[in-house]
Amino acid sequence: MVHKSQNPRQKAVEILSGVLGRNKPLKMLLTDDVLSRFDKSDRGFLLEIVYGVLRNLYFIDWLLEGFYKNKKKLSVYTINNLRCAVYQLIFMRVPEYAAVFEAVNIEKIYGEKTSAVNAILRNFLRKYKKEGVPQAEHLSIKYSHPEWLISRWLKRFPENEIEAFLKANNEKPPFTIAVKPEERNKVTFYLNSKGFKTNLTKYSPSGLIVEGQGYEIRKTLMESSFFWIVQDEASQLACFLLQPFNGLTVLDACASPGGKTLLTAVLMKKGRIICLEKNRVRMKILKENIERLKKFLPDIEIETILADARHCENVLQKNLKFERIIVDAPCSSLGVIRRNPDVRYRVSEREIERLSKTQRLILEKVSSFLSPNGILVYSVCSTEPEEGEQVINNFLQKHDEFCSIKMLRTYPHIHGMDGFYIAKLLKTE
C-alpha cells in the first residue's frame, strides 16, 4: 500500500514505482499539484532524485546487480528504494548514514524488506569504499539508453557524436518559455527583478531561457501580466515557419497541450484557429491552456473539436479551406529524452513503425484542407527518420501539388534544443 507523504525520498520511490513498475508517464505523476506540497528545498531534492534515477537507471542497476541474493522476492518499491539510495550516495554525495537510515525507514512504511535493504546498502558501501565506483564502458550502461536505440543511432552518427548526444540527453534541459516578441525585453526585466537570470534564445524571436526551478518560474510568471507559455525553442521555430499573419484561418490538427496554437495566435494577432484533439484528457488540458491565455488574444477565435485527425473529414466541412495547417503529429518523443527521461524505457522499435503509419495517414487527410498557396508545417519531437524525413518524402512523391520549402533537424547536443524534425510545405495548386 502506498502512503501519501511530504517526505521527498518516499515520494520519489512512489513516483519511480509508478513509472518503472506500472509504465505510467512521468509527467502524469510529477505534476505541479504534487510539487506544491513541498517547500523549495524538498521540491528540488525530489526532482533531483526522480530525474537522476531515470537518467542513470541502467548504470545504477548495473552497480546494484551483484548485491541481490534473490531479486525476484523484492517488490518494485523495494528496488526503487534501493535505486534512490544509491543515486543519493553516488551522485548527490548524501552522507552514508542519512541515505541508509532514510531508505530503511521508507522500507518500514511499506512493511517490506528492511533488513535486506540495510544489508544491501551496507555491503554496497563496504565494497565501493574500498574499491571505488567502477566506470561502465558500454554506452548503454554508461548513459542508460536502450541498446536498440544506440544501435540505430550508430548507423547514422559517428561514435564520438553518439556519446555527446547521449550525454546531452542526460543533462538537465534549459527552462524555455515563449512570449510575445514585442514583450520579450519587458518579460526579461520582470524576471530579472524577481531574481531569475535569463538569456535570449538564439533563433526564436519569442524565446527566453530562464535559470531556476521550473515550478518557481511558473509560479512567478503566473503573477505577471504577460503572455507566456513553456515551450522549447525548437517547438517555437515550427510556429515561425508557419508564417502566421493577420486574418488567417489555421488548422492545428493535433493541438494539445496547445503551445503551437497559442504562439501562432499571438503571432497572427487576428484570425481563426480550429484545433483538433482526439483524447478527452488532453482536450481538457488544451481548453484550460486556452482559457488561461484568451485574455491576451481578443481578436483570435479559437474553436476546439474532439476528433481524430485521421478522420478529420468527418468533422470539417468539405469546402472548408485553411491558409495554414500545423501537423504536430503524435510521435515517439525520442527527441525530448532530456525532458522526459522515462521515454527511453517506454518506446520500442515497433512503436516507431506504428507511429509512422499514423503520421502518414494524418498528413494525407489534413493536407486536403489546405488552400492553394497555403503553407503546411509538419513537426515531430523525434530523432527517427521514419517519423520525419521518410513521412515527408513519401507524401511528396504522391502529391505533385506540394513542394518542400524548408526542412529542419535540431539536436540537443548540437543546437541546445530538443530533437525535432520540421518540414515546411507549400501547396502550389
TrEMBL record:
Gene3D superfamilies per the UniProt record, alphabetical: NusB-like, Vaccinia Virus protein VP39
UniProt domain SAM-dependent MTase RsmB/NOP-type: residue ranges: 165-429
Binding site for S-adenosyl-L-methionine: 277, 308, 328
One Pfam family it belongs to: RsmF-B_ferredox
Catalysed reaction equations from the record: cytidine(967) in 16S rRNA + S-adenosyl-L-methionine = 5-methylcytidine(967) in 16S rRNA + S-adenosyl-L-homocysteine + H(+)
EC number(s) from the headed UniProt entry: 2.1.1.176
GO biological process, one term: regulation of DNA-templated transcription
Entry GO MF terms: RNA binding; rRNA methyltransferase activity
Record InterPro entries: MeTrfase_RsmB-F_NOP2_cat (IPR049560), MeTrfase_RsmB-F_NOP2_dom (IPR001678), NusB-like_sf (IPR035926), NusB_RsmB_TIM44 (IPR006027), RCMT (IPR023267), rRNA_ssu_MeTfrase_B (IPR004573), RsmB-like_ferredoxin (IPR054728), SAM-dependent_MTases_sf (IPR029063)
Keywords: Cytoplasm, Methyltransferase, RNA-binding, rRNA processing, S-adenosyl-L-methionine, Transferase
UniProt protein name: 16S rRNA (cytosine(967)-C(5))-methyltransferase
Gene source species: Thermodesulfovibrio aggregans
This protein's encoding gene: rsmB
